[in-house]
Automatic annotation (TrEMBL):
The lineage of its organism: Bacteria, Bacillati, Actinomycetota, Actinomycetes, Propionibacteriales. Residues 41-273 form the AB hydrolase-1 domain. This is Pimeloyl-ACP methyl ester carboxylesterase. GO terms for molecular function: hydrolase activity. It comes from the Bacteria. Keywords: Hydrolase. GO terms for cellular component: membrane. InterPro entries: AB_hydrolase_1, AB_hydrolase_fold, AB_hydrolase_sf.
Amino acid sequence: MEHMVITDKAVLAEPTATYDVRGGGGVRLHAGEWGNRQGRPILFIHGWSASHVCWARQLAGLLAEEFRLVAFDNRGHGMSEKPLDPDSYRDPQMWADDLAAVIDQLGLDRPVLVAWSYGGFIVSDYIRAYGEDRIGAIDLVGAAVMMKPPTFDNIGPGFLGNAPEASQPDLATNITAIRRFLDVCTAEPLDPDDWSAALAWNMVVPPEVRGALISREIDGDDVLARLSVPVLVTHGRSDTIVLPSMAEHVLDVCKTARPSWYDGVGHVPFVEDQPRFDRELADLAAELV
């Protein structure tokens, strides 16, 4: 049977404002803002080797009519500063300080945190260090909350089969690995323009950074178990990067979590089924008073 192709390619809308935020250790983080400045803030946190550009559909879509949308590049990614010292990425306090700096310096009032993939680790780091009083809700999107080498429970072959080579210094090797990684991120092929844009933002990330990110040992269960804010667990049933068993684990541990399963969808539900994703995110934000 012939594959479908995910179309309606996204073009990132012009931000209404951009910011240089000083994160943990003084690292400069690039952040942008879109949408209704008077609306409930939604803060998008991208994953491993990605960029804020991955949220282009959300930032240019219907969400912008109602909500204040903020997205930033994680340290080592996109337009943010890229220190090559591995300790800049292995210290959980650095990640916590980065997220705290974006919330504080942009004056975000109890934002909804949308954490994709590696973003789940970052949210856990933040809450462990700063608590949950400053946030309104969390959408864990194909999110990882534990990374325990050497077994890497609940991390899938789409990641484990490609991330090590994507972290090698040889350019041809890591390009090949990232191309394979992108091919298995979605259940159906991306539009060629979207695919090439994703390749571009991946290649902006130094391989040393990619390797440092996956050298951590992480367990977010202590954070999940004590959360009181609403948590939406958004996960594709066909995700081979972060397995559906990771989402099942979150649902078991976190008493405020509820599932949103996407059949026939891989690791990128906000692209693979944007209308549903945006609607459910808007509903989550609307629950907050």
